[in-house]
Amino acid sequence: MKFYTYNYLLSRIEVTNWVQIVLIVLATSVLLFGVFKYYKEKKQSKYRELALIALFLVLILVGIRINEAQEHKAVDDGYGTALRLIEELSETLAIPKEEIVINTQAARDGAIIRVPENRFFRVIYTDGKILLENMEIYNPQIEIIDAESTS
Q1: Which of these, 5, 66, 94, 120, could form a disulfide with 135 (CB 3.0-4.6 Å)?
Q2: Is the pTM of this model over 0.90?
Q3: Number of C-beta neighbours around residue 80 at 10 A
C-alpha cells in the first residue's frame, strides 16, 4: 500500500510550463513582425502569409495552453484537498504535518491516513466535517512516497 507524504503532495502542484510560454511569445513576435512588414512593404503577400501562419500558430498554442491549464487545475485541486486534510488533521491531532501520510493523492471519503506509531485511520466526510475511524491493519505492506524519492 502506497502512502504519500505532505512534502510529496506539495511538490506535485503543477508549475508553469515555460517552454510553451516562450513559444507563444516567439510566435506572437513573428506575427507582429509579419504584420509590420506587410504594411511597411506596400502589402506584399509573403508577409501577409507569414502573419497568417503566425496567427494560427499563436491561436493553437494558446488553445493548448488553456486546455492544459484546466486539466492541471483539476489535478492540483485534488492534491490541494489532500494537503488541506493533512493540515487540518495536523492541527486537530497535534502532530507535525510532515509525519502524517495518506494513501491517496486526492483526499476523498475512505482515504486511509497513517500517523506516528503506525496508527491508521479511515477518513469519513460527514456534513462537511471529518470523522476518523481507527483501523487495525495486519501485516501492512507500506511504501512511503516522499518528494525526495521522485526527483
Answers
A1: 120
A2: no
A3: 16
Question: Rounded to whole angstroms, how far apart are CA atoms 67 and 64?
Answer: 5
User: What is the DSSP code string of the chain?
Assistant: -EEEEHHHHHHTSPPP-HHHHHHHHHHHHHHHHHHHHHHHTTS-HHHHHHHHHHHHHHHHHHHHHHHHHHHHHHHHHHHHHHHHHHHHHHHHHT--GGG-EESSSS--TT-EEEETTTEEEEEEEETTEEEEEEE--SS---EEE-GGGG-
User: Which pLDDT does position 149 carry in this prediction?
Assistant: 60
Which regions in the chain score pLDDT beneath 50? 151
**pLDDT number for residue 20:** 79
pLDDT at 16: 62
Domain ranges, ordered by start, for the chain: 2-150
State how far the Cα of 122 lies from the Cα of 111, in Å rounded to an integer. Answer: 6
